[in-house]
Amino acid sequence: MDRRIFTAEHDAFRETVRTYLAKEVLPYYEQWEKDGIVSRAAWLAAGRQGLLGLAVPEEYGGGGNPDFRYSAVLAEEFTRAGAPGFAIGLHNDIIGPYLTSLTTEEQKRRWLPGFCSGETITAIAMTEPGAGSDLQGIRTRAEDRGDHWLLNGAKTFISNGILADLVVVVARTTPEGGAHGLSLLVVERGTPGFERGRNLGKIGQKSQDTAELSFTDVRVPKENLLGELNGAFGHLMTNLAQERIAIAVAGIAAAEHLLEITIRYVKEREAFGRPLAKHQHIRFEIAELATECAVTRSFLDRCIEDHAEGRLNAVHASMAKWWATELQKRAADRCLQLHGGYGYMNEYPVAKAFTDGRVQTIYGGTTEIMKEIIGRSLLA
């Protein structure tokens, strides 16, 4: 079906993204996978191409356009190119809103120009060894010492953790209050006591540096408090819808791309004297996947449009996230099966998509958490 949510400007931006990927990402991506980290040069090139800080006001070096459809184009093209390990979406769509909506004027001028140029790479540190989706379990603490916060604790599974120059840390600033006793503190590269541990080995997205972080008596200036004191829970909830729809956009793009490459493969590959595509079972598998993708795409495009207009709610974002990512997981498994032994070989895109996409149903809130949000909204 023809997509109706994009304009000529979005189409032109898509071409810019494809050109950037062809020139600055794809020739180097295999090496980044081996290195376990993306080159800083690629981040700087993204800044020069205007791919960073799309929604940041122009006065701070950004694109000045909060239209989420541009972010959707980025997510789709990076996914289709097989480059999900370059966390441009994390930078723009997850951390960007915190640095534009919660910052003071002084903080904006200090942090946003580098954010948009690619000189300042960002991360958000929420997950801990003993706390994931349950914010009440966060043990990293920050004590008020007058002119600074004294930060102690540990975080894990932090995307961009090795490269990050600014880390938004979720820390407990009030012993009581559970999830409502948390604040957001910005820790800058080079701050004494801030250490990076292992660049964690993963089954997929190997170019995405994912780190353990530790904070030992880190003195965080009072002016690095982001948003309201003890207001982290509300801030995090406000931005979760965008994070989840961004993950969902990548999910449906991945499923569609897997379907495309599998259709090409079964038309060319022969078994028992004829192309795989001539076998009824194969046709049925393709028909099912094509239908699931078409129906999901219709819902996702509506969510993208609603979010661009500020009308997307948390429940629909959760629906989109769990459904699109579970479809991606299903499509990767079934398409790999249709490739047979070749699907298990790393040189085939379907093999890489199988491992790269597995985390999609986990981060940003697991499928189970999404169902809980949806169920509570219906049965409250």
Q: Overview of this structure, please?
A:
By secondary structure, this protein is of the alpha+beta class. It is 49% helix and 15% strand. The chain contains eleven helices and ten strands. Strands 1-4-5-8 form a four-stranded mixed sheet, covered by helices on one side. A hairpin with a 2-residue loop joins strand 9 (270-271) and strand 10 (274-275). Helix 5 (88-101) packs antiparallel against helix 7 (232-268) and helix 7 (232-268) runs antiparallel to helix 8. The longest helix has 37 residues, at 232-268. It is globular, with a radius of gyration of 21 Å. The mean pLDDT is 96.
Strand content range: 15-25%
**Low-pLDDT stretches:** none
Average pLDDT figure:
96
Strand order of the largest sheet: 1-4-5-8
Radius of gyration: 21 Å
Described by strand count, sense and barrel closure, the largest sheet is: 4 strands, mixed
Number of strands: 10
What is the terminal separation in angstroms?
A: 37 Å
Number of helices: 11
State the share of residues found in helices, binned by percent.
40-55%
Characterize the overall form: globular
N-to-C series of helices and strands? HHHHHHEEEEEEEEHEEHHHH
- The quaternary organization reads as single chain
Keywords, separated by commas or semicolons:
single chain, 380 residues, alpha+beta, four-stranded mixed sheet, four-stranded antiparallel sheet
Question: Brief overview, please?
Answer:
By secondary structure, the chain is of the alpha+beta class. It has helices spanning 8-25, 29-35, 40-48, 68-80, 88-101, 105-117, 232-268, 280-308, 314-339, 349-356, 367-379; strands spanning 122-125, 141-144, 148-159, 166-172, 182-188, 194-199, 210-221, 225-226, 270-271, 274-275.
